[in-house]
């Protein structure tokens, strides 16, 4: 038994479980997939725990969550909600369900809907930057892209987000 | 984000204020912990120990002395490594803030009672002035999520911090070097002992031997 490793896991990883779940939930499109991704990511984090030295635990964990989520998306794993979302998003004449229509009613819903509709590579940088308040360098490490790409991607993500938001405002 | 223009700042503000922050569902932490594998044995055990030809306790002491002599670095499992880092930090802090001890005394009969009521265990306190390691005092420190006894010894111009904790696990004697400090750790008498100093490994080994002789 190595209770020390578990203790270290509890001290280093568990405090960031909310951040991990928030990122997973925003990358996947269902609660269940978000939770499953976090579970799998935490197992990986536990395995690699000895490799965590001196760096900050939160971006380190978020990188693992992000990679887990991306491989789920690439492999088409996860529930229908996650798998079909991106296809539905691009479908011509896509009719939104009552839930989406209902959420239009308030502003909060508009931001959530616009963010949800963003392509995943835009969504992830916005979530990391605005919700997790990470630096460009940290985002670059997590998303495995150069720092210049982080900046340009953030700027394009904001433009597209603003456009989607305007559309939502129009519809609402 | 004001470094990205007012429009970006406005959008960022809306996301922070209005977008759903999905907090981990209740019970997720417990489910995560329950899914962790039972780690059967310390994975990073050094082969030096596994192949140790001396076998049991008496042999370990010999091996320890030998390792000190040849200055072998023993790789340690993560948690102990972190404890070792904390111990070096505590040692450095005690020197930096000139707060090596709360009770200054070379008399073990003064230092030992000082800990009574401050700790839920009674650390053995011995003076080793005759062996060249003079007790200069003691203080409370905080390690491994608990208050612990720290004794301070002087050897020539060097200070040694000796941390004494109730033994929590079957730790093996080990010596290591971290950030230029030498550490020695061993279990005896139901306690885990950690000595840290800028003394060389050999002198730290002599300190340990002197302590163990005094305890007999």
Describe this structure in words.
The complex is a heterodimer of chains A (172) and B (216). Chain A is 75% helix and 0% strand. The longest helix of chain A is centred in the last third of the chain and has 25 residues. About 5% of the residues of chain A have low confidence. Chain B has 216 residues and is an alpha+beta fold. Chain B contains seven helices and seven strands. Chain B has a seven-stranded antiparallel sheet with strand order 1-2-3-4-7-6-5, sandwiched between helices. The radius of gyration of chain B is 23 Å and the shape is elongated. About 12% of the residues of chain B have low confidence. At the A-B interface, helix 1, helix 2, helix 3, helix 7 and helix 8 of A face helix 1, helix 2 and helix 5 of B.
Topology:
The complex is a heterodimer of chains A (172) and B (216).
Chain A (H helix, E strand, L loop, with lengths): L2 H10 L4 H11 L3 H17 L9 H18 L5 H11 L7 H6 L3 H11 L2 H12 L4 H8 L3 H25 L1
Chain B lengths: L5 H13 L9 H8 L11 H4 L6 H14 L7 H19 L6 E2 L3 H8 L18 E10 L2 E10 L2 E9 L7 E5 L2 E8 L2 E7 L3 H15 L1
Antiparallel strand pairs in B: 1-2, 2-3, 3-4, 4-7, 5-6, 6-7
